[in-house]
Amino acid sequence: MPLSRASSAGKRERARAYNKALPLTIRCLTWNVGNAKPVAAELAHALPDGLDEDIIVVGTQENSYKAGKGGRKQAVAQEKRAVAQESPEPTEKAGSAYSAYEPAPTPGSPHSSVGDTEEREEDSAAAVGGGGKGHAEWEEMLARRLGRGYVPVRHVRLWEMRLSVYVKASQRANVTKVHVASAATGGPGGMLGNKGGLVVRLRLGATSLAFVSCHLAAHSHMLSRRNHNCSELLRETASALGPRHLTAAAQFDHVFWLGDLNYRTDLNAAAAAAGEEAPFPTDEEHHGQVLRLVEQGDWGALLGADQLAASRAAGEAFVGFEEGPIAFAPTFKVERSSELVYQQKRIPSYCDRVLWKSAAGLRGAVSQTSLAALPRVSTSDHKPVVATFSLTPSEALRGTMQEVRSGGSRGSRGSSRKSSLFGNVSSSFAAGSASFTGSRAYASLDVVRPTVDMDYTGGCDPYCVVSANPYELLYCAAHEHVLKKGEAAASTVKHGQDCTWPDDEVPLLRLRGVRTAALPHTTLLLAVLDKDNVILGKDDPVGVVQVPLRPVGWSQDSDLPPSFEVEFDEPLVQGMASTDLKSGRPLGRLRGTLSIATTAEAIEEALAEARADGAGEKARTVKLGASAFERRWRCC
Q: Which of 391, 421, 439 is a domain's end point?
């Protein structure tokens, strides 16, 4: 049954109690179903008996078929027509479009979902076409396979893509803050849902998670389009999940990304990148060599020619993401059988992937426990891929009201110091005081401008917005009354080639009351945006940097020192790219130092210095969050 409304204090107590149950386990299944009805018994390869993971995530593509007999025959015929016409993307059958968010139709049914009932997105659930019986049949198949031990959090659909997230029935009370989103990136102008992606975000205990399932542009020569698809997907779903300038790849503890990413094996491109001539001038020679590498089990050579690996190395996609070691044959394009037989007209490729990314303050919390393809699944031209994970749940950052009341002063304000940047550029940096149970801290940071021209006339009018993970943890001490409407920002620098924000223009920051031991799990999010001076125009996000509030070398079993500094020099990342996909130029870098103290004496000294310098007096707040998100958001 849907989760009922609970008090904030009750949610915090429940989250902290849950954190003691380690670890949190996740199973992700991605599968391009190939427009053919799956064999229910073959789901046991991906979802075997005796499952014990806390979360089950199932993302599928081309998951539309006739219920009953004839579905597989129809899919094979459609595939043959697409190959014969050499269509870049198979034409969608009229009337098959479907875009929906699906909570449970009735409590207690196999589709009954969990999560905060007040946070459902009923207004985003409108269907835009007929789904057909196959959709319900697929979800029923999953429900029967998983049994009563699991309950769905949400089902999301966009045309032939599906994303279903389940949790253990015993964990349903720990699931809160559930939101969903979808984005179409296929066809002219990225308007068609034959390509695109789906997102489900949730909080389990104190851990915020996002799951993304996507289907990117097909064919080897569409590499640039695939990379753009990723950025489009993140940009278009941002406002439904949180602030518009923070995408799903930046604002949560952990994001898991799965799907038919369609990145291909390209031995010629790998040779060209190494400064060599293309060794296989014809498709037949290229195909033959790839098949020989498959027969030899030389996965390293195949992955060395993988387009996804090349895009990651170039900063064009999946920057900051991780992927486990692949020790199996390519999953595409195969004959529809229980054997691993590749089709003759397509280069065997690792199209089906599972990657993940953690917030800077939580890196190392996720470990992949398995990654495997399922060659015995017979109904599709893709083999499914399953990955399992173990992760350390996030700390409940805020204490109970009783702890806060017994924990000392909460009245500290901001502070500021000056520092020089690396190289010949210098700038001021903001510093904020924070109140904790038993201790306090302040932080300082430097910012330098991006390098990409964002305006039509060239140049960029950058300003920096400071947020935190968790999102509700940070606010501007001088502007507390606009906490839910805006975020602290430095002043805009007009056509800033050599950007400097002096002390009085950089906001003073303060964390809300949290437990001191939780500080190392907090991440500061620094977002650079370009001011749009066009009437009714929206400011353009340039990139984001994540900085953990913990000393270098800190470990879970060690206490924080009385004071420490964290230096950072990181590339700006917009969506999941650190390179501008149009010009190929780097987006820029942020460099700076975080100075942190955990004693009241250090805070008071820094506060006195900030007052003497007039730090933050000209800082401002900006309204950036999406109104729909702001309307739904409730502090934990």
A: 391
Residue 3 lies in a domain: no
Number of domains in the chain: 2
Residues 345 and 312 in one domain: yes
Please report how many Cα atoms fall inside a 13 Å half-sphere around the Cα of residue 392, on the Cβ side: 11
pLDDT in tens, 408-418: 333 333 333 22
CA distance 426 to 601: 28
Q: What is the pLDDT of residues 311-354, one digit of tens each?
A: 999 999 999 999 999 999 999 999 999 999 999 889 999 999 99
* Enclosing domain of residue 59: 8-391
The sign of the dihedral angle between the CA atoms of 453, 458, 462, 468 is negative
User: Which phi and psi angles does 303 have, rounded to 5°?
Assistant: -70, -25
Q: 502: which DSSP letter?
A: -
| pTM of the predicted structure, to 2 decimals | 0.81
Collapse the DSSP code of 313 into the 3-class scheme (helix H, G, I; strand E, B; otherwise coil) and give the result: helix
23 CB neighbour count, 10 Å cutoff: 15
Shared domain check, 417 and 518: yes
Peptide linkage before 103 cis (omega within 30 of 0) = no
How many Å apart are CA 1 and CA 269, to the nearest integer? 52
Q: Quick check: 330 and 301 in contact, CB under 8 A?
A: no
Total Cβ atoms within 10 A of residue 237:
24
Specify the CATH number for the domain of residue 35. Answer: 3.60.10.10
